[in-house]
Queue: 4 jobs
Job 1
Amino acid sequence: MIVDDDIAVAAAGDNPATAIRYVTGLRGRPLTEIVEELRKYSAEHDAMKVSKSFLIAKRALDPQLWRITGGEVEDSSNLSRLWIGDADAFRAFQHQYAALPGFPPEQRLVSTMMTIVLFDDIPSVGGYTTRASGDATQPFRFHSDPAGSGPWYTEGEFTTGPNGEQGLVFQVPPGGDPSQSTR
């Protein structure tokens, strides 16, 4: 989630929709409050045996990363890479990232994430990626990457709009299970 031009937050854990809503409610707050609020939110859920983890990125003037897991805050000063989520997914990430030497870091990262999300069968990994980036001169903004996922059993139908535009509509047929997804 982009909190503002200079702060972005990623979430992992059980029921990510509630974490997303919580983070977006922190817009307009100073960075120190955001870090503390997410630390408390993570700790409260950890006490209930509910996983809520966050990565916080600050882009300018002094770029920095924080990881919050189990109510504990770590900054990136002693770590080369911060990760939240499933350990099996992280191992797959490390393996895929290492398989792409010679590519620029951003291309390696995007390709690795898309491969894990779209092709690896890791039960804890969702069916899509959302990418945001920023640097010293550019604010955080979302990027569109070609990727998708959906229910395992779908039917497609070609459509023609009023201006002759053609499209393809997918839907789950009667009796289909929309909770079974495929990549």
Note: The CA atoms of residues 80 and 173 lie 47 Å apart.
Job 2
Amino acid sequence: MIRFPNDGDAVKRTTGIVPASGDYTCTFIWRCTGDPTQSRILFVTLDDPGVYDDWVYIVSGGASAIHLAVGHNGVEEETASESFIQNETYPVGYVREGSTHRFYFKNILVGDLTEDISSGVTFGETWLGDDNFTNAGQQQFMNFREWSRALTTEEVLAELASSLVVDNTDLETDTPLANDL
């Protein structure tokens, strides 16, 4: 697993980002090694960190629980939260299909929400790890994968259960993150 021991630790991409108007899936394995009551971003794709007007992020909100949040024009919608335990390893998934956003954690569909971000939204960055606003590092990741299509629940669960990619159709990213960079 790649370790992010410090506040601000992350990997960031600014090119090759699946457009907000397209279907999208990402999956990864995550472990919180720090204080589970601190807020921390696990994954975010957003317009621009200087603007932060449109975003999708998976976050632990500071109460040993994790949820998906989608923001559009500065207004945020959130799914239900699911609890986690420090130093346990968890599978995480996110699917955007049209205006529906689904959040998977611990191999279950935690919740979904509807927010249309298909028009007028341009994502400029995708981060795995701290977005430099939450100020909580101490997390680990592996097997980060992205598709430019919406995987079904069965496909998401199959990907989360496998150390190798199960379905290469429209696969955009397959990064094992087996070691520190």
Note: The chain has a mean pLDDT of 90.
Job 3
Amino acid sequence: MVFLPVLCAGAEFFGIQFHYSLYPLAAFYLLLALPQLFLCIGGTIRISPKAKFGWGILAALLVLSDRGYWVHAFFVNNHLLLGFYFTLSVIGIIKYRENRQLFWLVIAAMALATTSLQRNEMAVFAFVPTALLMSLEDLDRKHYAAFLGTFLAIAFGWQFYRVAKLGVGGDIHGWGVAQVG
């Protein structure tokens, strides 16, 4: 799922029209990610896992009750993908905070890069999980470098691809993944 926008752009580039069926899958994964996000929340707040899961289910039900969710689940637009990838990036940071496994930072960085590439203003959102990560007192510098390197490789790699495809004077606005096709 992390590479869905890149896969869609590649499919557009080659004239393949399969990727529209992946948006309902992203909508489903967002519903699965919400309870997981609440289960990840820990720290100084003592809430039972059952209560956390209950809040996650309540959040998923709230999303399900929104007409906009259903529209974007079946309409090719990046709003739902933004929610999924941003949630995944926060989950990755929280999971890293719990067990200090580099895997979770790489997942967070890929999801965050994908989030920031979705729309022009989404690069600002990259600061939220990054600030959460930097708030860790014992952050391993090598892990932070891997996080930052993964994020920058994806984000700037895509930018270089866009410039190569559209040219320096091409119609390039912001970061947008969906703007090449």
Note: Residues 174-181 have pLDDT under 50 and may be disordered.
Job 4
Amino acid sequence: MPYTTDHKQKFDDLKFYIENQDQVRRQSNGGNSILFSYEPDEEKHYIEKATEIFGEEAVFIDISKLFVKYIDGEGWGAFKEYYQDFKNTPHLIFKSDDPSTDLFDMIIVEIQAASDNGKIPFIVRTGCLYGTGIENVNIMEHKAVMNLPVPLVIFYPSKFEDDNLYFLNFKPASKYRCMLVK
């Protein structure tokens, strides 16, 4: 992907919002997150560029790796059986209210750990959340995220069309508690 003026502008906008948390909170209904939107087929390139630009000051939390870690922790057989029992209500598997650790809990722990280490938390490979019952707004509205000293950056494979945001280019998505960089 050639680095174009549009790409540079998006990263300049991202830097501005990271450095101006008060503006993020004002423009995102009290939220503390930045949705960084890009075409899904450009994800690898955007992650590489972000790593180049923010590498020292950020932690990149890869949702695909957390997803695999979660399944490995449960064990494939147990996960498969559990998933079959609850496939119509995936949020009960991946984002439940019970005390056991699920994927959502793992995401929040990683975000908090990045912040505790003085780093900007970026979550990437968020397409893996599709079908889990975990929505971007669940992460954005979590108390730990709302109280971060810097905004959470969510890399978001999506398109913006007719004032609507579409996760993975087809699923209507919320942009209520975030600043959208498109």
Note: The chain has nine helices and seven strands.
